[in-house]
Amino acid sequence: MSNARKMRDVFAKEKIVVIPGAYDALSALLVQKTGFPAAYLGGFSISASMAGYPDWGFTTMTEMLSVAVNAINVLDVPVLCDIDQGFGALTNFARTIHAYENAGVAAVHFEDQPFPKKCSQQANRAVIPLADAVAKVKVAVETRSNPDFMLIARTDSKGIEGLDGLKRRMGAYLDAGADYCIFCEQQTEEELRAVGEAFPGRVIAFVGDVPENPACCLPVSAYQEMGYKGLVYCALGLSAAYRGMQNSFEHLLRQRHVSSGDLTRNNTSLGEIQSLAKIKQWQELRDRFDML
């Protein structure tokens, strides 16, 4: 079964699909081990973890895709990938759709910002004209070879065109062939509900990343009741890893000592990491063929 078909089955089976954000192959494996049906690789997390850059379109298509390929090679669950605005002009965008589908990615989301894009948490973002954004959706539909390959159109238009403009764009993208729409500009529960009820079962929200915004921190059941089909906890993995590493490094700097008790309380074991990286399977292969 293709990864794209797996993702379609997840969306068909689950009342609301909950997808945590990873940032590399190991964190994606941890998403799978925890029991989630799919993993997410976002541009914010990849740009920060791989290159140490903000989410400003610095990373290239090949850099982002390489992270996805590494994850797909070790996962059984399907992967949803952020492809920013497609890494350039419309022809670049078409090439990106083709490359991600061929690599085994199950679904992608792409935004209606110009190139270079800006992270959704930053001010003064811009969007391309509606007609151009609709054309991108149509090009994506034409470019994919497997209709199961999921196309998710993202809009960053609320700050510029208001909630009515955002809903107008979502409707146009869905009419043009997008499977779902996704957004992350909600400031209130009322805004969330207005979008969810306008497109029941066809919209996904980014949540779980902005603690000062209550609309990002509701129970999953609340989003489901509003009509959302999916939730992406975009930077959950990266932000948790950041805080955990920071605490451990600061402890070492301050105490000049990491005790066995510290390791037991605050860190996983090297053996557990090796297990997640499937060392047993690789060792069995070596032993079976008497390889070094």
Descriptive account of the structure:
The structure is a single chain. The protein is built from 13 helices and eight strands. It is an alpha/beta fold and 292 residues long. The protein has two domains: 3-235, TIM Barrel (Alpha-Beta Barrel); 242-288, no CATH class. Strands 1-2-3-4-5-6-7-8 form an eight-stranded parallel beta barrel, surrounded by nine helices. Helix 4 (61-72) runs parallel beside helix 5 and helix 5 packs parallel to helix 6 (130-143). 40% of the residues are buried.
Describe this structure in a few short sentences:
By secondary structure, the protein is an alpha/beta fold. The protein folds into 2 domains: 3-235, Phosphoenolpyruvate-binding domains (TIM Barrel, Alpha-Beta Barrel); 242-288, no CATH class.
Structure characteristics:
TIM Barrel; eight-stranded parallel β-barrel; alpha/beta; 13 helices; 292 residues
Report the structural category: alpha/beta
Taken in chain order, the helices and strands follow as HEHEHHEHEHEHEHEHEHHHH
* Number of domain units: 2
* Number of helical segments with 4 or more residues: 13
| CATH topology name of the largest domain | TIM Barrel
CATH class of the largest domain: Alpha Beta
Strand content: 5-15%
